[in-house]
Amino acid sequence: MTKAIATALTAALITLLSLTQALAFDTRARAAYVVDQGTGTVLLSKNADTPLPPASMSKLMTVYMAFEAVREGRLRLTEELPVSQHAMNYGGSTLFLRAGERVTVQDLLRGIIVLSGNDACAVIAEALSPDGTEAGFAQLMTRRAEQLGMTHSTFANSNGWPDPNQRMSMEDLAILANRLHTDFPEFYPMFAETEFLFDEKESQNRYNRNPLLGLGIGADGLKTGHTSEAGYGLVGSAKQGDRRIFFALTGLETAKARAEEAEAIVNWAFRQFSAKTLLQSGEPISNAQVVMGAAATVPLVPAQDVTLLLPIFADENVPAEIVYSGPIKAPIAKDQELATLVISPDGMPAVTLPLFAGKDVGKGGFFVRLRAAATTLLGNTSLAAEGAS
Question: Sign of the C-alpha dihedral, residues 133, 139, 144, 145?
């Protein structure tokens, strides 16, 4: 195995992904996760894969499955669903639904997203459950979450009501937020609604609890959560310019602390980092040695533009290597994967990018191949002589 230091890398590439400890955000949250959507760069991860009580933030899973059902025609936005006694019995944040009444799917969804209605979640759950119960729907939630890559989430109900089996990680919540945005752009604007008056008799219960909406920082979702067990939490998203971030945090002591921490995270993520295209698709960054070929080397190129999120003041001491088994035997086809670019930022897992042949390299002529064979033979003879000595 040959490890070739990438001497042709530009200074800008050497700095990529240098998210140093000096830029770390010291969050008060018990657990938090922040990711840049465009580059996939994780900006903050604190206890991010720990399953924790999600409170009302778990309602996002019910919303996701309801959106899927609407798109697939299993629910219609104008369809009226019946309210059961079970749904009516929920306390906490509710729409004050009454058993026997019927409510449209659209009003139920807005009631969940804007008003955090526990009862509205139960109505949706019973409509989509294979056995008509909320518990049956919760089993589907767990299964669907795993399919979405949310491997630290289990559900006992549709709304986050305290239960030892109701758990989600902050990373899973960020994954879910991203999927809601990318999979359902037609429904996503619901998360930015600041108020929804469902019942004039309960006119005070019409405001979205998300403290970031309306602050002018690009926030457009998604869901708050609070129970005495979970503390105060928020799954959020914000867009500024061409960048969007998703984040989840939990375990804060007050609603005020949640609002302050969430706003600080958004400002930090946009002010301390910027996205830059460091390499163009097909741009050679180094060469790999070739044996028995018409050329002695082959250029190594990325298959697509390399756009990464960099700190505003990046550390330039991050090592980068190109790793390949070599020399590489000809013939070599253009776009053949040959090597891996490995970047090892201080204090972070190594990042790897595949590199490909930038051009075809055919077999060398007779004398080239003869010279290569003779070199190999001499090498083997030398090794044999050493073994006999």
Answer: positive
